[in-house]
Amino acid sequence: MEEKKISSNFIHDFIDEDLASGVKSRVQTRFPPEPNGYLHIGHAKALCIDFSTAEKYHGICNLRFDDTNPSREDVEYIDAIKEDIKWLGFHWDNVFFASSYFDFVYECAIKLIKDGKAYVDDLSADEIREYRGTLTEPGKESPYRNRSVEENLNLFKRMTDGEFGNGEKVLRAKIDMSSPNLNMRDPVIYRISHVSHHQTGDKWCVYPMYDFAHPLSDAKEGVTFSLCSLEFENHRPLYNWVVEQIGFDEPPRQIEFARLNINYCVTSKRKLLEMVNKGIVSGWDDPRMITLCGMRRRGYSAAAVRDFIDRVGVSKADSTVDYGLLEACVRDDLNAKAPRAMAVLRPLKVIIDNYPEGQSEEFEVELHPEHPEFGTRKVTFSRELYVEQDDFMAEPVKKYFRLFPGNEVRFKSAYFVKCNSYDTDEDGNVTCLHCTYDPESRGGNSPDGRKVKGTIHWVNANDCKQCEVRLYDRLFSAEEPGKNGDYFDDLNPNSLEVIDNCLLEGGFENAKPGDTFQFMRNGYFCVDKDSTEDKLVFNRTVALNSSWGK
């Protein structure tokens, strides 16, 4: 089997140096999401970096759930994260939980206390924040900082035994309150939380902080390269301090990369959850959401998402990527893969007056113009058809080449059709077009060589199927939602339009959720999970061309 080529980047350059110098002898990474929400496009970048790096060096990449905050975590998120990783095409070597190391992490805390490197503090969270100082002023030591080892061991045991309430005491590392790095000013490493854990039940009422449990979990697993986003760069000294104090033969090396920022999007889990809870979206998998399950439901393919991540690249500098690049990747992917079909979103009836009543004929049409191996489909033609309302104008504007009285167009793959007249209702709305066709132009070609400038799609009234179409657009209308106030104020009021009476050509009886198609001239669509045997529901994945801002 041909080996997939993975492009190099500065992370791989560091790894190459460490392997060449003998500092590291192998490559092991991990993808460590917290199970407190669904993965979004930002996580996809970290995910791709972690897994593809291990893949490139024939190493190991484990999936580890950093479940140190049980009040916000749920098994639902664990299952969803696993599904998303598989969907993107990656495979973990092992599944671990930070909670599996709680006994080990607890013993590490005891070691720090015995070594005089940790103490129990009675200050409140607000007082700790006040004592920490600022970027320009050093912090000041807690009055409880110099408790004896015996007293700290006793208090920490009493914390563990559930003697104190939430927030009454914490365990802090004893490092340097005058450090220029605020993360090194005696950070909290354990707090009291009387809450049941989804993995360990009620065994613990003290839980380690992320900055303490994370490096210890990495080191315990044998991770050689801890790859994380740039906001953890200032946490690296604390990461290194923790693994150094405990003592490991081959401590992990932390390397940071720029996180993925994308305009017109919100990637904060807190905000995404808020939108779900307030009913702004239908759920985590709402097709307007930037979650992986939302994009999957909308019809984005894993290949398109990975292509997008690859095009963005890996850098050390923060930047914002245009959402249009993601749409372009999706469009390129679907253009090559999606079979073609005809669907009329806003139907207008057409009667071919000179076509024999009761007659019907079939056209053999290729499923994809560039892939004959996809095969063909049968499209039927009869006296009564439907076209798009936008494909007719009673009084055409300049350079309008579609249907209007006296004009002839090509009905895709069928015949030349000329509009002669139209009917209206009492309000003046056009209800039906009366046309004639040229029987000699079967297949859309004229025997006398005359040219027509317009080609439109259509469906046969006799066998078309009614379906629901959901036209999705960007959820936010501002490039930076919330920049000038509440991000709710930047919601796009036109992010979803539901059209219930769309008509689809026949032959879609076997379409199932997830199937994607190009509806000619309308865009790319996929079958939604809300579809039933009686009625298909389609989501617009992306338009044929970008029209944002036009």
Task: Draw up the topology in text.
Blueprint: H1 10-21, E1 28-31, H2 41-56, E2 60-65, H3 75-88, E3 95-97, H4 102-114, E4 118-121, H5 125-132, H6 149-160, E5 170-173, E6 188-192, E7 206-208, H7 210-221, E8 225-229, H8 236-246, E9 253-257, E10 261-262, H9 269-277, H10 292-298, H11 302-312, E11 320-321, H12 323-337, E12 340-341, E13 343-344, E14 347-352, E15 360-366, E16 376-382, E17 384-388, E18 408-411, E19 416-424, E20 430-437, E21 455-456, E22 459-460, E23 465-472, E24 496-504, E25 516-519, E26 523-527, E27 536-542
Parallel strand pairs: 1-2, 2-3, 8-9, 10-11, 12-25, 14-20, 18-21, 23-27
Antiparallel strand pairs: 4-5, 5-6, 6-7, 13-24, 14-17, 15-16, 17-22, 18-19, 19-20, 23-24, 25-26, 26-27
Helix pairs in contact: 7-8, 11-12
Textual characterization of the structure:
With 550 residues, this protein is an alpha/beta fold. It contains twelve helices and 27 strands. The two termini are 46 Å apart.
Keywords:
550 residues, alpha/beta, 7-stranded mixed β-sheet
Distance between the termini: 46 Å
* Net shape: elongated
Fraction of residues in H or I helices: 25-40%
Average pLDDT over all residues: 94
Profile the largest sheet: 7 strands, mixed
Strand order of the largest sheet: 12-25-26-27-23-24-13
Strand content: 15-25%
**How many distinct helices?**
12
Given the helix and strand composition, which structural class is it?
alpha/beta
Q: What is the alpha-carbon Rg in Å? A: 31 Å
Total number of β-strand segments? Answer: 27
Low-confidence parts, pLDDT < 50 over ≥5 residues? none
